[in-house]
Design goal:
The chain contains no helices and 10 strands. It is mainly beta. The strands form 2 sheets. A 6-stranded mixed beta sheet has the order 2-10-9-4-5-6, with no helix packed on it. A 4-stranded antiparallel beta sheet has the order 1-3-8-7, with no helix packed on it. Strand 4 and strand 5 form a beta hairpin.
């Protein structure tokens, strides 16, 4: 069974940066569109960013210009570089395939203090 694992979250002050990492067992990222999603306390899940197998990326309006999604095919890893963090970026961040998602990982908690 595919297992997704997100890491890199933590507590950071507003304006700071974090880099999230997503890895997967038994799933090669190179063939899929991959995305990052987040869920803030009391809110619905929100799309953050996606990267196609071609390398083309798209972003949610809330993070455009501040976040960058990338991947390392050799390491089967997807990254989310988050800069200029705001308190409203606080939440649990998850990665998954855009189409036909596999079982979700535990996510990684990002807390941005004001």
């Amino acid at each position: 069974q595919v297992q997704l694992e997100e890491s890199g979250g933590g507590l950071v002050q507003a304006g700071g940066s974090l880099r999230l990492t997503c890895t997967a067992s038994t799933l090669s990222f190179s063939s899929y569109h991959l995305g990052w999603f987040r869920q803030a306390p009391g809110k619905e899940e929100e799309f953050v960013a996606a990267i196609r197998w071609t390398g083309h990326s798209t972003y949610g309006d809330a993070v455009k210009g501040r976040f960058t999604i990338s991947r390392d095919m050799a390491k089967n890893t997807v990254f989310l570089q988050m800069n200029s963090l705001k308190p409203e970026d606080t939440g649990v961040y998850y990665c998954n395939k855009i189409f036909l998602p596999v079982p979700w990982g535990k996510g990684t908690l990002v807390t941005v203090s004001s």
